[in-house]
User: Fold these one by one.
Assistant:
Number 1:
Amino acid sequence: MPIEQTLILVKPDGAHRKLTGLVIDRLDAAGLEMVAAKMTCVTEKLAREHYAALSDKPFFEGLIKYIRGEFHGIKDHRILALVYRGENAIKAVRAVAGATNPEQAAPGTIRGSFGRITTAQQFENVLHASSDPADAAREVALWFRKDEIIP
Ligand code: TYD
């Protein structure tokens, strides 16, 4: 199985609901290795670059506000960004995370247990996890410099 790196973001709802430790605990338990971590500021530019592939979706502007903490009063738009590495890490992390839509996420997954859809139809699904190797490479490079990642 390939050794992969994948980007995880504990989103503002995760931080607000004190789920940061739980996310790290579940990822550690999946047998993956954390190789980078930082609290970082989500600028408007970074948010739009991160979600560039979704810019034509109707939920895009809400997503930008959400990831920047505007719904949760997160000071300075900080977010916890992590890189995990391991065999099949991309799929393994997404299995722990659960489906994008919290209502469809299996019980016991992070999103199945803790995600929700607000009355304004905003998905709050606790974390971001890269979806495939090309996305993972692009996203890791967007959020981290090379020298911030353990080789
Ligand atoms: P996407 O990249 O499709 O999912 P994932 O985060 O599982 O890789 O979507 C990015 C984010 O956009 C998702 O985490 C939540 C939000 N989103 C919505 O708010 N509504 C939607 O219908 C979809 C598909 C996504």
Number 2:
Amino acid sequence: MSSTPTEESIVTLKAEALDQLANAADEASVESWRVEYMGRRGRLTGILRNLGSLDPDQRRAIGAAANRLKGELESALDERAAEIKRSGSSQPKDAIDVTLPGRRTRRGGLHPSTQIIREMLDAFNEMGFQTVEGNEVELERYNFDMLNIPADHPARDMQDTIWIDRERASEDGGVLLRTQTSGMQPRIMEKQDPPVRIVSPGKCFRFEATDATHEWQFHQVEGLAVDEGLSFADLKGTLYEFARRIFGADRKVRFRCDFFPFVEPGVDMSIDWNGRWVEILGAGMVHPRVLRNVGYDPEKYTGFAFGVGPERVAMLKYGIEDIRHFFGNDLRFLTQF
Ligand code: FA5
């Protein structure tokens, strides 16, 4: 700008500059605004450069006004640039109320079932059992047939099954949500030769009416040991030791005869709860037919297996009255652990 500066030209320039700056919507427009008004060849720079052509009185008055405008435009520029930066972030401008007092961040935690499962696995791991993860969607063959529970066996009715595909034409039978973790027994034994000593935790599902000690989804921790010379004393010793580690030495434990087609003999184990017995697991010596199904020689090898319900264990350990709390998703319950 080479024309002689006047007071009007400064007033006009200010109005135009501020108007244009208010309409600059992004960083690039702000930068071209800066170049247009305040760059080396900018309009305000031109005015300042031409002050020398004025007589001294005018130079003083117009010079002061031009310098004032320079200061004003610089702060307007900074403010607009900061505004654009703020609105460009994902937070709306006033999303954070900085006047609110500070609050503690709420930390998440492990689900009580996960916590008790880990504690149980630690106890078994220390006794030499290795943890193996299993699958929740299971084949009929592993959930039932390989465990000596043929299609017409009444034991299938004890575990009301949630089927995914019941009519599937395959020698593995249908597909289901596993009713027990015991399917992991043949799955593991098919893959490896004895000795076997594993525990396998996971979710099970049964289409059954719920009450204070029965859920339609719950966990089990399966255990299996197969070797030469294992006896019922090994089973009992292992489960006693497990109970001692989880519940302490004073808690009363009861074994009773029970029936499961894949063990012989079969037992269940209950824990004393204020004078009442609550069953936490089924167990037994692996049935010779199950060993034969996976190609093991039952004359040479024996084994024991067990299936513990961690929610029942947690109920007894922490005095939880109703198993339905576990999957009720109520934070008042879940945050107590
Ligand atoms: C079984 O599921 C056998 N597979 C256990 C077994 C394994 C026996 C290996 C022999 C050898 P049962 O249905 O009793 O057995 O379940 C075992 C444990 O799972 C129960 O003691 C209980 O702790 C838990 N459980 C079973 N059904 C439910 C349910 N509806 N809700 C919560 N926990 C359950």
Number 3:
Amino acid sequence: MIWNDEFETLPREALASLQLKRLQQTLQRVYASVPFYRESFQKANITPDSIKSLQDMEKLPFTLKQDMRENYPYGLFAAPLDQIVRIHASSGTTGKPTVVGYTRRDIKNWAEMMARSFSAAGAHAGDVIHNAYGYGLFTGGLGAHYGAEEIGASVIPMSGGNTKKQIMIMKDFGSTVLTCTPSYCLFLAEAALEEGIDIRDLPLRVGIHGAEPWSEQMRDEIEEKLGIKAIDIYGLSEILGPGVGIECIEAQNGLHIWEDHFIPEIIDPESGEVLPHGERGELVITTITKEGIPLIRYRTRDITRIIPDACVCGRTHLRLERMSGRSDDMLIIRGVNVFPSQIESLLMQIEGVEPHYQLLVDRDGNLDTLEVHVEVNEKMFSDEIKVLQGLSREIRSQIKDILGVTCEVRLVEPKTIARSEGKAQRVIDNRNKS
Ligand code: DLL
């Protein structure tokens, strides 16, 4: 179902003129109230009035995560604190977290975008939404919560953790929609089986998964193991939180990005040049309705492409292809660029392998080494050593043939790779540690 017919199916031309109007208002706002933007526009020799068309956007400087860190905590806010009603933060791997603030209207818009997202995934009033995204500074829990309430569903604010209880509640309360990271979803299914519960027998119908990269093969695995439709949802705290974009259940092919609130661009991450629709590169987003912390041409580091074709669902908003990784997650192993998602896709196509893996990168002298730890299923594990050796040789040679990098493969027992209640840690890179 389409939640907001008027805006979600706006003809492209009307959408573009709405975007331009809102972009110009946003530029005026940040120029007037955020010293960082006034300075960066001045350096680029522009004022908000220089932007007369959407094409002119290329003149605007990029905003980086680093800029948010340097203006920690409130330096990029475009509204005074007495108008900020919520603060979230994302913990980076290094240093201080990135802080974002929402005005009352921002929260309303976010709930609306999450309501659109739930509807696109096929959820509606009457659904019992089991929300296992973490509540707290992380945007996942509260972001999904407000959207679930907006559509009139009954939301269970589970948050992450306490897996046994999650399973009991899911069964007893008759949850029909599950929201959590894709890796935690598989963990839940596995833990349920240990309790003698097959999630396929429960009323659960849809899973809405995001916050970390996952592959089409992992989707198949989730849909098979839980007996549900698994929908990809994208977002990042700097821009909003969950609900920047989502797949529609009709196509399950590309994530509609809510273009009346955001302008997406794809750039070459090396040169910064804008790429035409269809080409893969780094996603850059400009917010055009946010008041608390509007961001101009924010470099997400996420790699995707714009799918320019119209979608069968009738929404006119552009679709982004499933994120294929982050430009800063790209591993360079002996000069070869490798995205963890490529290894995941490859592993998931091999019989006997479970969707739990970890990549260990290290250095031996001057040489990078890659070790792929991957779980095999019970059946495979009980097989003869010869069979296991054959399997590990097959994985090794596929990685070599397809990605061009030599690695060691270690097959490990089922359930030995650490499970996460939030984002899975797929890569351990020890190269920079002495
Ligand atoms: O992860 C917000 C969110 C919560 C999205 C719940 C979806 C569901 P951050 O913690 O700021 O925000 O992390 C944002 O996570 O830049 C991507 O690299 C990654 N990411 C988020 N969704 C997806 C996805 C939330 N569907 C960062 N596929 C982003 C791949 C994703 N990566």
